[in-house]
Amino acid sequence: MGARDSGDRRDTDMTPIEDYIRQRLQRKRLLLMTHAIVGYPSFEANMTMLEAMQHADVDLVELQLPFSEPIADGPVFVQANQYALEAGVAWDNYFAFMQRATMVFDFKILMMGYYNSILQMGHERFCACLAEHGGDGFIVADLPPEEADDLHQYAAAYQQAPIVMMTPVNSESRLRRIADKASGFVYCVARRGVTGRHTQVDEGLEAFIARCRSATSLPLALGFGLRTHQDLQQVKGLVDIGIIGTALLTAWEQGGVKRYGTLLQELTSAVT
Amino acid sequence: MGARDSGDRRDTDMTPIEDYIRQRLQRKRLLLMTHAIVGYPSFEANMTMLEAMQHADVDLVELQLPFSEPIADGPVFVQANQYALEAGVAWDNYFAFMQRATMVFDFKILMMGYYNSILQMGHERFCACLAEHGGDGFIVADLPPEEADDLHQYAAAYQQAPIVMMTPVNSESRLRRIADKASGFVYCVARRGVTGRHTQVDEGLEAFIARCRSATSLPLALGFGLRTHQDLQQVKGLVDIGIIGTALLTAWEQGGVKRYGTLLQELTSAVT
Amino acid sequence: MYAELFQYPVGREGYYGQFGGSFIPEILHETIRELTTAFDDAQADPAFWDAYIALMSSYSCRPTPLTHLENLSKDLGGAQIYVKREDLNHTGAHKVNNVMGQGLLVQRMGKQRVIAETGAGQHGVATATMAARMGFECTIYMGSVDVERQRPNVFWMEQLGARVVSVDDGTKTLKDAINATLRDWADSMHTTHYVMGTVCGPHPFPQMVTYFQSLIGREARSQMLEQTGKLPKRVYACVGGGSNASGIFAGFLDDAEVELVGVEAGGLGLDSGQHAARLARNVGSTGVAQGYKTRFLQNAEGQMRPTHSVSAGLDYVGVGPVLAYLHDIGRIRVEAATDAEVLASLQHVMRREGIIPALESAHAFVTALKEAPNLSPQDSILINQSGRGDKDIFTIAEALGDEPWRAFLRQKVGEWEPETAATDGILT
Amino acid sequence: MYAELFQYPVGREGYYGQFGGSFIPEILHETIRELTTAFDDAQADPAFWDAYIALMSSYSCRPTPLTHLENLSKDLGGAQIYVKREDLNHTGAHKVNNVMGQGLLVQRMGKQRVIAETGAGQHGVATATMAARMGFECTIYMGSVDVERQRPNVFWMEQLGARVVSVDDGTKTLKDAINATLRDWADSMHTTHYVMGTVCGPHPFPQMVTYFQSLIGREARSQMLEQTGKLPKRVYACVGGGSNASGIFAGFLDDAEVELVGVEAGGLGLDSGQHAARLARNVGSTGVAQGYKTRFLQNAEGQMRPTHSVSAGLDYVGVGPVLAYLHDIGRIRVEAATDAEVLASLQHVMRREGIIPALESAHAFVTALKEAPNLSPQDSILINQSGRGDKDIFTIAEALGDEPWRAFLRQKVGEWEPETAATDGILT
Ligand SMILES: Cc1ncc(COP(=O)(O)O)c(C=O)c1O
Ligand SMILES: Cc1ncc(COP(=O)(O)O)c(C=O)c1O
Question: What is the homologous superfamily of the domain B11-162+227-271 according to CATH?
Fold first, then answer.
């Protein structure tokens, strides 16, 4: 039912990013979304990371705005958030970086972060600012759909996709409710817990994605705990976008740009 | 009244020690009772002390049997008790020392101590033992008259004087009660507190002694806090016996036999 | 007013004015719903409250007494000062009220494991105690800085069978422990209940914790009436997260004539920037973090600011949304007490009344004793003594620079040194 | 039987069989009489007991609860185990019952100063507390060994305004502190009351302290009836001086079917000579010391023997004369628990029930838990938890060899070292 309801959306509802995704899906079975925490380990390093992503033909990139209380993040990202804040990352240099990136690279860029940053900036100012600096949407880890209306209105006004999350523990009705707020694509959380730990791709996961599909006709991205090209191989055909976060940052921390680039190449080989 | 009652005692009630005191009082206005803790600092030192006493014509000597809980003693004696116990003073060497002393010296010797030693030995055995080793009586710091009957019966049987104490805070009736248990002489406690601190000889003291006199016709000894020949000078005429304890031990500790002997000579000069 | 606070307008469940809500990762949504339902259910079941009361009176010592501070009342010449003695609770603070209540709820929900954050360690000890008593597995998250400075509490938690996890993120204190606990929960929520330690976090925690802690206020109100024949003019409570304050205020919310005064940690002074005040002088601003919306001590971009207080239990960036709301609408007044005032007050109260308030509770005493002289001896005021101060010996002895205490610790440490020294001798 | 204990045959006031009495320097006679009269007077005045109860319920948390140890009862499969929670008292032990009662008596007598001995420090803290509350001057005597090992309690006594005098005589522990206090009293008795901490010392202390502590037994008896509908089969209490045991036993002395079991400190074992048992296995013998006659741990010549226990509060050579008598006539049974058993039991009880008995109280738990399986689940037994164990953290952490605790203390000490080190650097 939900699926049919959502299926009724007219094409004119489509955000630029959904449009972009659907086009890319014509030539790739699985898109790749990667992630960087702005200011960690440095703006220059971030730039190098993004260059590697570009080189690996990544489709979407989350740029995380550091926050002092990152409750949805695992240890690696928590430390990175903190480091970046201590190094002085703030709104101005964050958005300056985003702008620089959107001008140089082909992939779409989404802001990722926590609601307090947006609240302090103001919903409209945030959306306007995103649009002005070339962003295409945002993912907020701690904003439930109940609280999203006002922000989403501004998002629509500024053509920003407000990406919502579906999780394996949501009921059907909850998934429909989330779907109602969704546009662009839906971020499916592969498992319980926070970012960072490995996820097994199994039947449970397939059933979950099936439930998401019947709740929304939007493209589905799957994240939380995907690490290797084997992981991506396994979810190809199941979802539209694979999300790699912690694995990449860990690669950087362990082997710098070389290992980072290698991992990205491996991942790309899986999706193409 | 009490005085008159006690005055009724017949001469045959007299213990050897009262007899001795009354005789000495014929030629001296104030007798001198001194004190040593057996085994502190050593038996040899005790012997030297006693020799000095003899030399100074001391009339009565208390030999304290060390006890682990000397509640009526002040700091100097407490430490001495403890030292002597640690050095191994026990019944056998205590009584052996007493016997040696009674055989060598002219003064009368009284056992001084706490009730538990007597209780453990047994009332009769204790009195017998005292008599056997040449003692003439005992002073027990923590034995109230209510508890004294049995012990005093044996004391009488073995011709030991059970010396009781009167204090400035006792009521008339209490003083009479104490007098009832008394024989030999009465130990008047000059002031509140434990052994060791200096006592002012003043009107209060005179009034107290007057109350003791009206409670008993026995000779009165005054102790607790008498230190100098001036002190003795002042109580001469007031009581029959002056008791010097802590001051002597302190002299020994500070200046050995020399200072000890000097103090004894000074004290004697006051009483003769 | 108390009841109305928890009758939410449509679509505003868990909101108090603009504060409250539930800002959590979606993965926790169903768990929070399950908890809300279980709690609503329990609340509607009179047998539940009865079981709670029975537990608290047989396992802790409820009702805790109300003590008249006769000496201080006389000394100050103002209001009669009464103290609600939460320090006499089992584990030494009001924290146990909430924890035992949540424990009963966990039994209803059939879960087997509990997790909790702790700052000073009081809530951790209380939770470990409840877990031991109720047979739950237990993990306590605690900032590594707090683990270091509150070792005695860590020791007891471990002895009580809890696993204590030292959290090395952020400021390594309470707020980071909360984040770590939320993360564990996001992973374990099907078997695990998060025992939130104060009236913060996502709905239904502020409501639920207030509900359990309201026992303080209910008891205190009837005790005041019984002992003085009337209500107090003012009620004072320290405010960290706000649970003890919410608990005692709950009893008097409907008595408009009773002024309710919260006291926050003024640290080195509000102007020093080294404090943990949020409501006093409106130092905090509205934000969302740790699952709820309230007044936080944050910078202009919403990053939480480091806090400071001599009392670990008040050293926190957020504050219960109910209190933030009551402050907004003027129903409560909020002041701050500095570290120095707290130590002075603590010493004063010990010497004159023989009671030892926790450093946290001593904040409430500071303001109450300051204001008592302005009232008449016919009036009375009520202070919530949220906990006992002997837990704070390391901090207090340190703050007072007690030399024998230092010598004592040196000697303790010295007792183990010989071995080390000997080893050193061989090695070097 | 309880009432009869205190109706002395003619000429035997203060005697229980052969035990008791008043063996004090004559200088204290009138003071002791004055006290006896004041106490008899107070006891005959129903308003006095009422005032005492009122004070204890508003200043401490009486009645203290009775807790059913559901888990341990189930685990052991024997008797239902109930615990009387004296640990929840203000200052953390039963000691406060006696102390507040004596405080009221001091007020009646119009004295201005109190003195007391203390071993573990609990009685000292309680006395300092009472003195602060009632406005008395206060001096506490404590063996220098105990001052060293119980520094936290010394710190609190001083904070509460008491002067703590370190006693360097004898074994430098409790018995020597008692002697020192008696000496002070012999000097100061016209202005000063000696607050004896247990049911020992000269008459009327054993009677008086039993009277105040009987509150424990009175409450416990009616709580047992209320909660279980019948009396316990057995009542267990640790025995140092014997006040908590006397207090709880008092409630059941007239119930011949209730077995009363005291547990002494077995230290390293009764055969090791390193213990503080006096009644168990009749190790002690009749003697007179510290003002009274009882069974002491003494050698053949009446010198007191050094005692040993992991718990400072049981580390004493004498025992209340009432208990010695009740033991003689077979009304109570006395066992001993070793240090090792005590630590094991303590850990067990913490983990299963979330309560932390004082090391002293843990002795009672040892024997009770050992014997519970021999009774039926229809029966119940009662343990007196005389105090809380958090006061014992230094001893317990030490005994368990807790490395993080040591590291914590080292670090604390290290925090002050730099200055010293710097100075050293300049000097050397
Ligand atoms: C004794 C005591 N009082 C107060 C607090 C502060 O918490 P709240 O404001 O939630 O009562 C704490 C927290 O640890 C505490 O231990
Ligand atoms: C908690 C506790 N229990 C027991 C005792 C032993 O004393 P009593 O045998 O007089 O109860 C003490 C003494 O300090 C104590 O602190």
Answer: Aldolase class I (3.20.20.70)
